[in-house]
Structures are given as C-alpha cells and as structure tokens.
Specification:
By secondary structure, the protein is mostly helical. The protein is built from ten helices and no strands. It is a lipid-anchor.
Length: 202
C-alpha cells in the first residue's frame, strides 16, 4: 500500500495553533524589531522635549507694548533687547529672515547665567552646545574659530558664563546686521502706525 505523505508546507497549515513567524509584521510586538522601533520613538520624544526646553526659555513676554516703548526701540538696540515685548517682536522679525536661532541662543545664554545648580548648569550648557554651537545642528549660530575654541575648552567644566564670548558676538551680529532692517520692516512700522492711531483715537 502506498503511504500518503504530507508535505511540510501542508503540515504547517494544518496546525491551527501554530503562530506565524515571530518576525512577521503581525507579531512584531513580540520580537526585537519592536524594541528598535520603541527605542527610536523614545529618542525622538527626548529630542523633542529637549528642543522645547530651549525654545521656550523665559519667553512668555506677550505684554502689549505702548507707543512710547515702541519708539524707544528705534533709539538703540540695547533698549529693544532690554524690553520683553521688544525682544518678542524682534524675534518674530528674525523668523522671517530665517535667523531666529540668534535670539534663541541669546535667550538660552541669559537663562544659563541665572542658574546656580551645578548639574543644571552642566545639562543646560550641553543642550546649548548641541543646539547652537555644534556644526551638526541645523540651528548652528555663526561664530568665528577663536570663540569656538574658547567654548570647547570651557565645556570641559561648564559655568554660567561658558558662552559669554559667543553671546556677545551674536548680540553684535544682530545689532549690526538685523536691527537696521528691523526698523525698516513692515512688522515694526505697522506696530508703530497702529500704536499712533490708537493713541490719537483715545
């Protein structure tokens, strides 16, 4: 009598309790590829949190400026930068010129200067370096080689003043390059015009 032989493929299908290969998409949550996906998601989440921390540095400065304040911004860059509403408006202008990172870096340095906790100083300094100094960062600010060299040395033992030279250089850049254009920009002119009209109506 001829014996009926069952092929391996049929045998596999005939067992209803047998699960598909553990690495197929359906069972991915059980295997190593799911761990890789989860790790990537966690890393992306951490990067997003880190970015948010830096970009929301004491910048809740949404107070409405008076006409007198807005006119003072045109008197000097120093007066503009010392005024919370002025910094906000200037930051909006920098965003239109794709150079908002200059203000973000300056604000991050100001925040670091107020820090007294050693571990917080280390963490904030590292974040500032990765976000604005590293040549791999999309938000890298423009600094000369001398200042970069100084920062690299200071990063071995960060302090609240690690980025002082870099902050001054970026402040000077914004003052000489962006500030004159800001005063002639539609953003600033419309604000002053709107303030003048409100003042005359009242």
């Amino acid at each position: 009598m001829a014996r009926s032989e069952t092929s391996p493929s049929r045998a596999q299908h005939s067992s209803p309790t047998q699960r598909p290969n553990a690495c197929c998409f359906c069972w991915c949550c059980c295997c190593s590829c799911s761990l890789t996906i989860r790790r990537e998601d966690e890393n992306r989440g951490r990067m997003k949190v880190q970015e948010t921390k830096l970009e929301t540095i004491p910048n809740c400065e949404a107070t409405k400026p008076t006409l007198e304040e807005m006119k003072q911004w045109a008197q000097s860059f120093d007066k503009l930068m010392k005024n919370p509403a002025g910094r906000n408006v200037f930051r909006e202008f920098l965003r239109t010129e794709y150079s908002e990172e200059n203000m973000l870096f300056w604000l991050a340095c100001e925040d670091l200067k107020k820090e007294i906790n050693k571990s917080a100083i280390d963490e904030k300094a590292r974040m500032i370096y990765e976000d604005y100094i590293s040549i791999l960062s999309p938000k890298e600010v423009s600094l000369d080689s001398r200042v970069r060299e100084v920062i690299n040395k200071k990063m071995q033992e960060p302090t609240p003043h690690t980025f002082e030279d870099a902050q001054l250089q970026i402040y000077t850049l914004m003052h000489r390059d962006s500030y004159p254009r800001f005063l002639n920009s539609p953003i600033y002119r419309s604000l002053v015009h709107g303030g003048s009209r409100s003042s005359s109506e009242s």
